Structures are given as structure tokens and as C-alpha cells.
């Protein structure tokens, strides 16, 4: 085989490899692909940044419960209307500073849809 041919074949192999491996990257956090949303990987950082100032351990500023663990967060979704509150414009959570971003709310919704996975 001459040099030109082997160069051509290598190029084709690289192209083929790149195309076939571009599908389900498990490190991709885009909620629209097949990656499952979990508390540990996606939800905990949102509650840490936006909720535990009041829903800490212990809760403060009049918040009725803490949201510091997987179980507490799951419980709030199932029994305290958490999804309604993060999407509410009249009675929102967090109560000040505007709603979570659309992307963050989508992540929490997909977490629920995926079955409230911990890890
Ligand atoms: C500035 C303080 C503060 C922050 C930050 C905050 N909350 Fe709250 N939260 C409260 C207070 C006070 C209440 C109780 C009064 C009410 O229901 O509006 C409450 C109530 C709730 C309730 C209803 C509980 C029930 O049993 O009725 C949910 C659900 C909730 N918060 C979720 C969240 C989530 C999720 C975040 C973060 C995205 C968050 N909150 C951030 C202060 C806060």
C-alpha cells in the first residue's frame, strides 16, 4: 500500500470513529438526552445554592422544613408541592430574587419524571 492510500484509510477511520462515538456521552449534563437526572449529580447543587439559605439545618427565616438531603428533597416534591412552588409566579420559591432559571426548573422536573433517583 502506498502512502497516499494509507493516509486516506486513516482519515476515513478517524471520521468513522468520531461519528459513532458522538451519541450518549454520560458526562453530558444536557437533560434532553438519555442521561438520567439524579439528586447527587444535578439537584443537590441547585438546592445548596438557592434553597438552604432558609431551608437549612435547622431551617430559618420561617421556612417550615429543611432541604438538605435526598430524602428531604424527595419528600418535599411528593408532599409539599415543590414543583408548583418553583414554577409559581404568585407564590414562588425561592421567594425573592426571581424564579430559578428555566434550565434549572427543567432539570428538577426531569428528575421527577426519571423517578427521583438518588445516584
Ligand atoms: C429566603 C428564604 C427562602 C428561600 C431561599 C427558599 N425558601 Fe422555600 N420557603 C420559605 C418560607 C418562609 C416558606 C414558608 C412560607 C411559604 O410557604 O411561602 C417556604 C416554603 C416552601 C415550600 C412549601 C412548604 C410547605 O409545606 O408548604 C416549598 C416546597 C419550598 N419552600 C421550596 C423551596 C425551594 C425548592 C427553594 C430553593 C429553590 C426554596 N424553597 C428557597 C423560605 C425560603
Can you walk through the features of this model?
The chain is mostly helical and 119 residues long. It has one domain. It has helices spanning 3-20, 39-50, 70-79, 82-87, 102-113. α2 packs across α5 (102-113). The protein is elongated and about 75 Å long. The N and C termini lie far apart (51 Å). The model is unreliable at 19-28 (pLDDT under 50). The structure holds heme C. InterPro entries: Cyt_c-like_dom (IPR009056), Cyt_c-like_dom_sf (IPR036909). Residues 44-112 form the Cytochrome c domain. It comes from Confluentibacter flavum. This is Cytochrome c domain-containing protein.
Keywords:
single chain; 119 residues; mainly alpha; 5 helices; 0% strand; binds heme C
What structural category arises from helix and sheet content?
mainly alpha
Largest sheet: none
In helices, the fraction of residues equals 40-55%
The amount of beta strand, in percent, is: under 5%
Question: Segments where pLDDT lies below 50 for 5+ residues?
Answer: 19-28
Question: Kindly, what is the distance between the CA atoms of the first and last residues, rounded to a whole number of angstroms?
Answer: 51 Å
Principal-axes shape call: elongated
How many structural domains are formed by the residues? 1
Element-by-element helix/strand order = HHHHH
Protein name: Cytochrome c domain-containing protein
Keywords: Heme, Iron, Metal-binding, Signal
InterPro entries: Cyt_c-like_dom, Cyt_c-like_dom_sf
GO molecular function: electron transfer activity; heme binding; metal ion binding
Amino acid at each position: 500500500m502506498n502512502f497516499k492510500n494509507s493516509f486516506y484509510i486513516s482519515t476515513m477511520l478517524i471520521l468513522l470513529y468520531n461519528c459513532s462515538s458522538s451519541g450518549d456521552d454520560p458526562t453530558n449534563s444536557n437533560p434532553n438526552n438519555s442521561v438520567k437526572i439524579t439528586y447527587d449529580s444535578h439537584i443537590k447543587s441547585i438546592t445548596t445554592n438557592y434553597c438552604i439559605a432558609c431551608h437549612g439545618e435547622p431551617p430559618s427565616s420561617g421556612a417550615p422544613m429543611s432541604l438538605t438531603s435526598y430524602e428531604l428533597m424527595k419528600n418535599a416534591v411528593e408532599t409539599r408541592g415543590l414543583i408548583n412552588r418553583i414554577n409559581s409566579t404568585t407564590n414562588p420559591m425561592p421567594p425573592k430574587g426571581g424564579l430559578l432559571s428555566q434550565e434549572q426548573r427543567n432539570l428538577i422536573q426531569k428528575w421527577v419524571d426519571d423517578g427521583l433517583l438518588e445516584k
